[in-house]
Amino acid sequence: MSEKKMSSSRKHHLKSLMLSIAKILLEEEEREREQERERYMAENCPPVAMPRSMQELQELCREINHKIDTIDEERYDLDMKVNKCDKEINDLKIKVQDLMGKFKKPVLRKVRMSADAMLKALLGSKHTVNMDLRANLKQVKKEVKEEDKEPVGDWRKNIEDKAGMDGRKKMFETEA
C-alpha cells in the first residue's frame, strides 16, 4: 500500500482550518460561561434597589445582616463537621497503631529459594531475567605455561652450581 504524502500547502490549509474551528469553539465556550455567570448572579444576587429613605436603608441593612448571620451559621456548622471528622480519623489512626503494636509477629521459617524463584514470586510474570550469572561469563581457555622446569634434585648440587665464590663453597663443605 503506497501512502501518498500531503503537500505542505495542503497541510498548511488543513492546519489553518482546524485552528479556525478551534477558535470558534473557544469563543462559544466563553459565551456559555458568561451566560452561566449572569444566570447565577440573577438567581443568587438580585439587583440592589437603593433605598431613598432612612427607614428603607435600615431595613436593607437588617436583611443583609440576617443573611450574613445565616451564612455564618452554615459555615460554622460545616467547620464543626469537618473538625469532628478529622478527630475521628485521628482516633482511628491511633487505634490502628495500637493494634499494630500489640500484634505478635509469627516466627518465620527459612525457605530455600533460588534467586530466580524469588524474583518470579515477587515480580510475577514480569520476571524474564535469568539469574544464572555463570551462563553470561565468557569461556576462557587455560593455557598451561610450559617453562623449563628441571626437577629438583640433590640440594648439594644446586649449592655447588650457585656458589659463585669459592670461599662460601668451602664453608659448606667443611660443615658437612
Task: Describe this structure as you would to a colleague.
By secondary structure, the chain is mainly α. Helix content is 64%, strand content 0%. The chain contains 5 helices and no strands. The chain has helices at residues 8-44, 54-102, 115-123, 155-162, 166-175.
Keywords for this structure?
5 helices, 176 residues, elongated, mainly alpha
Mean pLDDT: 80
Which class do the helix and strand fractions yield? mainly alpha
The secondary-structure element order is HHHHH
Radius of gyration computed on alpha carbons: 48 Å
Our count of helices gives 5
How large a portion of the residues is in β-strands, by DSSP E? Answer: under 5%
Low-confidence spans: none
The main pleated sheet reads as:
none
Distance between the termini: 102 Å
Residues in helix, %: 55-70%
Shape: elongated
Q: Tally the beta strands.
A: 0
In short:
The chain is an all-alpha fold and 176 residues long. The protein contains five helices and no strands. It has helices at 8-44, 54-102, 115-123, 155-162, 166-175.
